[in-house]
Specification:
By secondary structure, this protein is of the alpha/beta class. It contains 9 helices and 24 strands.
């Protein structure tokens, strides 16, 4: 058999799949989105080197697609898991794409002619997409998907498609896989900033999340890399970042640090200062957490680039009385002074939380959850990959908030444990003969 199922195709799942496949293991990579890549594909740069995110991720995505030992299941979810370590039977439900995957070339002619524009989740709502679309230009597989919920069935895409790859009808498929081991790498989703009502998210157009800024600052994003106020389309004269929105918040039962928010804010603040030195940038924080290799030096670089760090947390954000922008007041806890600011743009550094499907998936797999909703590993220090069910391992931000290097290392670790299981299973089958 020598098969392993990897659930989740973010950077952690991709790394686990590649490591296993390179050791001769057949890997089934299950992803509920139309493309692999996860949240890393949405980012502009990565800290602390400021390397292009897709320059790192895209080659790995292509390697996954081309690898003979990896089978990609996009738009797919795990329905049930039976059996035990070495003899799992995994049932996967593949949702319809309404596209003939064998004939579609991913040319995009259908996308260009589609008249329907809807909310684009990949662009965090800063941009729009069509009713037939590719999530982003580097999507793997390089195929479109038809969104039947918003499609008005005008027929234009059928007419323009040369290979006639767009299907009028399509159906769900059930796939059953026999596997020696399972790796759960379902990643994370960001905190819903609407919960913090006083900060004005979605009530004040110029209060945005850190993910929305990522898409805005990305040269391939909906604004072409230009930072604009959503209220009037103008470049802001000043930008503030508010940290720990949905992290280290006891009343919300979110006591944990999300690990990436401080460094992400520093990264984007520096990118703003480099491209637009005329824009004033201030980061409001409780504590700066720069714990990784080169992170403290990165913090010093940000201060050297003119980014202001102010220790204090605003209680609320309000519209300026004259309607020209935003304002709030905050106590600088280092000086004891009350400061009033009138920023052009407020960026909420939203925390990380388990995906909405984590709880249901954990129940299907027979796994335990932490109080925070993340999947519980066997031991916080000694075994951070194993779970209460032998043969099932957890990697990346499915365990706890992690940055990209830690997620990759976690995926590699889980792959090695799963590889050992496949070899044990193979040896046991040989002995039983």
């Amino acid at each position: 058999m020598d098969d392993v199922v990897v659930i989740g195709a973010g950077v952690s799942g991709i790394q686990a799949a590649l490591d296993l496949a390179n050791h001769g293991i057949i890997v089934h990579l299950v992803e509920r989105e139309p493309t692999i890549g996860g949240h890393m594909a949405q980012l502009d740069k990565t800290f602390p080197t400021n390397d292009c995110s897709m320059c790192i991720l895209s080659p790995k995505m292509v390697d996954v697609q081309r690898h003979a030992n990896i089978k990609i299941h996009t738009l797919s979810e795990v329905e049930r898991v039976d059996g035990e370590a070495g003899h799992f039977r995994v049932t996967i439900r593949e949702h319809p794409r309404y596209i003939n995957m064998d004939t579609c070339t991913g040319c995009g002619d259908c996308v260009q002619i589609c008249p329907v524009e809807v909310y684009n989740r990949f662009d965090a709502g800063v941009g729009v997409r069509k009713a037939i679309y590719k999530p982003h230009p580097q999507a793997v597989p390089d195929r479109v998907v038809r969104d039947t919920e918003h499609c008005i069935d005008c027929g234009l895409c059928y007419d323009v498609c040369g290979p006639q790859s767009i299907l009028h009808e399509d159906a769900e498929k059930e796939v059953v896989i026999d596997a020696d081991a399972i790796i759960v790498a379902t990643g994370y989703e960001i905190f819903d900033a609407r919960v913090k009502v006083p900060l004005g998210y979605l009530k004040l157009p110029d209060v945005i999340t850190s993910l929305e800024l990522e898409r805005m600052i990305n040269a391939s994003g909906p604004t072409g890399g230009n930072i604009r106020r959503l209220s009037d389309g103008k470049e802001p004269e000043s930008i503030v970042f508010i940290q720990c929105v949905g992290s280290r918040d006891i009343p919300l039962s979110r006591p944990y640090c999300s690990c990436v928010c401080c460094m992400q804010a520093m990264k984007n603040a520096m990118l703003i200062r480099e491209k637009h030195p005329e824009i004033e940038v201030t980061i409001f924080y409780m504590d700066v957490r720069a714990y990784g290799k080169g992170y403290e030096e990165y913090y010093e670089r940000a201060k050297g680039a003119g980014v202001r760090f102010l220790r204090g947390m605003p209680s609320d954000v309000q519209a300026d009385q004259n309607g020209s922008g935003l304002f709030f007041q905050v106590e600088n806890t280092e000086t004891g002074e009350i400061e009033v600011l009138y920023p052009g743009l407020v960026v909420l550094s939203v925390g990380i939380q388990p995906t909405d499907a984590t709880s249901a998936l954990a129940k299907k797999l027979g796994l335990a959850l932490e109080e925070t909703g993340f999947i519980r590993s066997v031991h916080d220090a000694m075994d951070t990959i194993g779970t209460v069910r032998p043969g099932i391992y957890v990697a990346g931000a499915a365990i706890a908030p992690k940055d990209i290097p830690d997620s990759v290392a976690s995926g590699e670790s889980a792959a090695m444990r799963a590889f050992i299981d496949t070899k044990k299973g193979k040896a046991a089958r040989v002995r039983s003969r």
